[in-house]
Amino acid sequence: MNQPKQHLPNFYTFILYICGFLLFLEWLYPLKQLTDTSHLTILIIYGVFCFLLSALEIKWWLSFILKGFALLLVLNSLFFEFAFINPIWLEQLFHDTMANLTALSTQAWHEFTPMFRSLLFLLLIWLMSYLLHYWLVMMKRIFLIVLLTFAYLTVLDTFTVYNGNSAIIRTFIISLLAMGIANFLKELDRESLASTLLRKTPFWIIPLIAVILFSSAVGLAAPKFDPKWPDPVPFIQSSAENAGLVESDGKSGVQKVGYGEDDTRLGGSFVQDYTPVFRAEAEEENYWRVETKDFYTGKGWESSQAENYADFLKVPPMYPKTVETRRMQASIEFQGKEALDKLVHPYGIDDFSEVAGDPYIDLATEAIQLRDEDYKPIKQNSYTLSYDYPTFNIGDLRKAPFTGGADDAFTQLPDSLPDRVVELAKKITKDEKSRYDKAKAVESYFSRNGFTYQTTDVPVPKKEQDYVDQFLFESQVGYCDNFSTSMVVLLRVLDIPARWAKGFTSGEMVDSSNETNIYEITNANAHSWVEVYFPGSGWVPFEPTKGFSNLADFQTTMTNNGAEQDQAKQEDKEQPEQNTEQPPNEKEEAEQDTVAAKTDKKSNGTGTSIWTWVAISLAAFMGICIYIAYRTRFRWYTAWLSRKFTANWNANNYQEAYHYLMKLLQKHGEPKQPGETLREYAKKIDEKYQTNEMQQLTKQYEQFIYRSDYNETPKLEIAQLWQNLIKRILT
Predict the structure, then answer these.
(1) How far apart (Å, rounded) are the C-alpha atoms in residues 205 and 11?
(2) Per-residue pLDDT, 579
(3) What is the rounded CA–CA span in Å between residue 513 and residue 493?
(4) 256 has which bridge partners?
């Protein structure tokens, strides 16, 4: 007699489907680092909802309604300010959708709105829930999904800044478990093992888990060869024009290092780009200045005044005559198409030559532009400039009045600035008396307190966080923007006028003659620093970024029997940060210092307590969920089995439901005794619960087993009898 086709146990197929969902999540996790996706958690929650509905195998029309409603709810929470599903909301959704469909028909992909892009991505998650359910639960094929996931992660890990080490380990463990379950269940079906102990109990999965854990441990502990090829990302970034990841909006993702215009949202990681921007022929190293910003928002920098360009030649010099200067010249030549619409220049600039237009200066930011006769900006690929290179007298800086001397805009701070930033500024400078000494104390604070210069894994402040507060007290890792912004804010707390300056460092010297040197400046030399105002001396540059040297010139005047001794340019104890400027042994020492700083920070517990409480909270939440699921497991499983054998009426499903009923009776103190027939056992159960349902179910069970008589059986009536009896048992 032919046995009907055996179906896999629901518990195992559900575990298989969970493995597929976890592999799908590995495709989502890199989006937060590589794109401007700032609501990844909401996307994951929607994915869980879609996959759960597919796993429950509810009616297609009901699943369509629920998933569609959840999709609209997600879009409403992300992009709409109106109440959910009202006439205005529907009208705005309709117009937005039609506009994007028009862009789609004309292949104008760049015109897609964020709402429409999110809609397409949510639809993709919706479709993936169906696809993975069919591929895993129905077809039991897992290898292709595993292969594609590994290929996806390895490509991202190799050619982007995404670190896929942990993702590959997770994928390895999940894949082994999924393929083990899928292949074992295929063997059960192939051998027609309908009621064996292996099928009815999950004990067989323990050896599988042991093999997976052992394999993972061996893989992690085994020695590994160093990479045979260099990282291709810097080469790709520097070799291709405008290649790589574009500068993000600061919310999330990775920026491409280089000079940018938008400083309103600082933070986040970036990748180095060594594409040459310009070459400078000059006598000495200089800061190549572009502009300044004065208004700190708590997230980044803006200008407190509107753009206001004036004739550069009519603007007073940058420094008063009391500052000692030396007359110098420099030539700038931009490489390729890298010319900026603003002129880079050293401190003390006063004249441009060999230019195609007239120079104008923005009175708000001190940015300089060339403009033609129609007052339109001109990009100049090469020009020569003259400047009075200043030398600042430290004695005069110490004598400068502590307060006053600059506009109130340069002491502006947001009202939301945390109090602990104010307390830290006072603590750092409590022993200093002059404005200069306080500025130096703040400048050196970062190098003396374990702060780390790095461009990867740099956090972005959350909505309620202050950019400086996060850097000073939580991450303590970052690059020039973190250090320079923090110093400006700390000085402003003390009512010392300070502003944020940006441009380029001196670059790498590539040629030298008797009088001048040629420096190559790349995108990696884009930099920001601090300018502090001193009455009688003007705006003086300071360099708080760890690993950088101040490129300005200082002298110390010491009186000894009327003799004056001039000290040359001030030297920073830190080595320059650029890897291209560090000898190999110094680079290794810098890397060791970075590791040591991270270790010290971990040992001090900075940021650890927060994650500890997060882990405890998640563990407690998972424990509660597991406890609730365990206490209600019989009710859930009853509903699952009832739907299963009602939807697919055959001997196997009914046999599984009947065995579950007997198992439930056994757990409630009514086991079937040895030598007792099924009919005798059913009669005993009916007498206890004062019903005849068990006898009817047993009679139907015998017909299924011995006669395969199920075509004309009233399945809804039998299912109702089975549910009624289980309710009696559980109450």
Answers:
(1) 12
(2) 38
(3) 46
(4) 271
Closest Cα to residue 246, out of 235, 262, 232? 262
CA distance 285 to 571: 13
* Closest of 298, 377, 380, 307 to residue 339, by C-alpha: 380
Segment 620-649, tens digit of pLDDT: 767 777 767 766 767 777 777 777 766 666
Whether 543 and 572 have beta carbons less than 8 Å apart is answered as yes
Cβ–Cβ under 8 Å, residues 504 and 277: yes
Distance CA 236, CA 248 (A): 19
| Strand-pair category, 498-504 with 288-293 | antiparallel
Phi, psi of 453 (to 5 degrees): -85, 120
Please give the radius of gyration of the chain, using alpha carbons only, rounded to the nearest integer: 35
pLDDT of residue 72: 86
Counting beta carbons within 10 angstroms of the beta carbon of residue 666, is it exposed (0 to 12), middle (13 to 18) or buried (19 or more)? exposed
| Structural element, H or E, at residue 270 | strand 269-271
Confidence label for 437 from pLDDT (cuts 50, 70 and 90): very high
Task: List 666's β-bridge partners, or say none.
Answer: none
Q: Would you call 691 exposed, middle or buried from its count of C-beta atoms within 10 A (0-12, 13-18, 19+)?
A: middle
What is the secondary structure of 82-107 as a DSSP string? Answer: SPSS-HHHHHHHHHHHHHHHHHHHTT
Six-digit token pair at 680? 């005798």
Find the Cα–Cα–Cα–Cα dihedral 187, 190, 193, 194, rounded to 10°: 120
In the numeric block, the tokens 């179906």 are attached to: 7
Q: Which residues contact 78 (CB under 8 A, 6 or more apart)?
A: 39, 42, 115, 118
Q: Collect contacts of 247-251 with beta carbons under 8 A, ≥24 apart.
A: 248/36, 249/36, 250/299, 250/300, 250/460, 251/36, 251/38, 251/460
3-class DSSP assignment, residue 212: helix
Contact predicate 23/146, CB 8 Å: yes
* CA 512 – CA 377 distance, rounded (Å): 33
Q: What is the token pair recorded at 216? A: 């993972």
Mean pLDDT of the chain: 78
Percent of the chain topping pLDDT 90:
18
Label the pairing between strands 301-302 and 508-512. unpaired
Token reading at 673:
């005794």
Residue 707, pLDDT score: 61
Tokens of 399: 């004598």
Give pLDDT tens digits for 354-394.
888 889 998 889 999 888 888 888 888 889 999 999 999 99
**Cα 468 to Cα 489: distance, rounded to the nearest angstrom:** 8
Q: Which of 583, 525, 21, 514 is nearest to 283 (CA)?
A: 514
Q: Number of helices and strands (H, E) in the chain?
A: 23, 23
- Split at pLDDT 50, 70, 90, the class of 719 is confident
Q: Range with the lowest mean pLDDT among 119-128, 309-318, 609-618?
A: 609-618
Q: Which residues contact 621 (CB under 8 A, 6 or more apart)?
A: none
φ and ψ of 348, to 5 deg: 85, 15
Mean pLDDT, to the nearest integer, of 119-139?
83
The Cα 283–Cα 291 span in angstroms is 22
CA–CA distance, 9 with 7 (Å, rounded to integer): 6
- Given 3-state DSSP classes, what are the helix, strand and coil percentages for the chain, each rounded to the nearest 5? 50, 15, 35
Instruction: Identify the residue whose tokens are 């009669």.
Output: 683
